[in-house]
Amino acid sequence: MTDKLRETQDSEFLIFKGQTFTYDDLLTRISFFQKELEQNGIREGECVALIGDYSPNAIFLLMALLLNRNIVVPLSNESREKHLDMFEDAKVNQIIEINENDSWTLREGSESASHPLLDDLREKGESGIIIFTSGTSGKSKASVLSAGRLLEKYKTAKRKPLRTLIFLKLDHIGGINTLFAILFNGGTIVTSDSRTPESVYQAVDKHAVQVLPATPTFLNMMLMSKADAGYNLSSLQLITYGTEPMPQSTLRGIHRLFPDVRLKQTYGLTELGIFSTKSKDSQSTWMKVGCAGTETKITGGTLWVRSESAMLGYLNAPSPFDEDGWYDTGDQVETDGEYIRILGRKSEIINVGGEKVFPAEVESVFLEIPNVRDVLITGRKNPITGEIVAAEAVLEKEEDIKSFRKRAVAHCRQKLQPYQIPQIISVTDRKLSNDRFKKIRNV
C-alpha cells in the first residue's frame, strides 16, 4: 500500500480547513503513528475503535492501524449514543478518539474477547475493518471485512486523479470506498466545514472540486436549499449517488441544476463493498452492475450478488450468505437487457390489497408538489387492505393542513395508481433521514 502512495508523493493528498497535505506528508505521518501505536502497546490483531470524522489524523491513524494488522472499527461522532453497544458487538480492545482540534486520545476497551471471524483474521495475520450497517430498517449489524480483500480491486483500477469532496464518513462503506479510490489513484481529498448544501457549494467553489459523491436525500436537500447562487461550480464534472433509490424527480432536478455534469449511480452494500456501475445516461436510474470478481443474478425479482470482496460475516447476527456464497441484497429490481433499476428494498414494500407499492416511487411524485421539502412514505396496517400508504411531509413554509392534503391528493391522482395514493398525510418538522443522509424507515 505504501509503495503505491510513493508514486505520487509530491501531489496534494488532502485539503482540510485551509491546510494542504501532500502524499509525502501522508507517508511521514503514517510512519510516525506506526511508532506511536507500538509505544502505546497496541498489538497486532487487536480490535481498535477509531472515533472521528474526516481529518488528517483520522486518516493517518486508519492507515497506520491497517498496516499494524489491527481490526479497525471506524465510528463517527454522530453515532455516539450507540457507541457502547457497538464496542460490545465489535469486541473492541482499544479506543482511539479524534478530538475537534484533531488531537487524539487512547483508552482501553474491553478485555480481549474472542469471535471466530476475528480469530480467523488474526490467525492469517490480516488486518480487518468492521463497519456497522445503517440500521434504517432494524438493529445495526457489525460486518467484518478483510482489508486485503477489500483493497485488492483498488490496486489495479486506473483512474484519472481528481479532486473529490468527501461526503460519506469513514464509518460508511461508501466513505471507505471513496478514500481508497482517491488514494490509489493519486487524487486529492477535499473536506467541507459541515455537511450542508451551503458548505458543499462553498468547498466546490473554493477548491475546484471535480467529483461529489452524495446520497439522493442530500441531493434533494441541495435542490431545496437553492443555495447555489453566487458560487462558481464550473469545476464539477461528476456527481455520484447511491445508498438508497433515487427519486426520478430529484434526478431531473439535479440534471437541470448541473446540465453539464455527469450523474452516475453507484451500487454497493456494507456486506459486499462498492461495485463498478455504468448508468444508461445522466437522467436514467437504469445501470449495469458488476466488476471483476463479482457475479449477479436476479431471483424472484430480487438482486443476488456473489463477490470476492464480500464480508466474512456478522459479529452479532447469523451469516446471510447461502451455501454457494450468494447474498440476497433484498433489493427488488426491474431488468432491461443488461441494465437493472432498483425499485426498493423487499422489506419496505407496502402491500395494499395484494398490490406492491414502492416508497421511492411515491416519494418521487410527492417531491414534485410545491412547498414540499422532504417526504417519507411508509405503510400502515389496515383491516381491509392489509396496509395503506402513509405520507409524512416536511414543508418549506407553514400551510393549512387541509389545504395541503387536498393539493397533495390532487397531484398524486395525476401521477399514481389509486392504491399508491397516500391515504394518511401528515406534516412534521422532524428529521426524516439519519446521520448518513438515508431515509429512516424503521419508525
UniProtKB/TrEMBL annotation:
Biological processes per GO annotation: fatty acid metabolic process
Family: Belongs to the ATP-dependent AMP-binding enzyme family.
GO molecular-function terms, A-Z: medium-chain fatty acid-CoA ligase activity
Protein name as annotated: Long-chain fatty acid--CoA ligase
Entry keyword annotation includes DNA repair: no
Organism, as annotated: Bacillus amyloliquefaciens
Alphabetic keyword roster: Ligase
Domain AMP-dependent synthetase/ligase: 4-315
Domain AMP-binding enzyme C-terminal stretches: 361-430
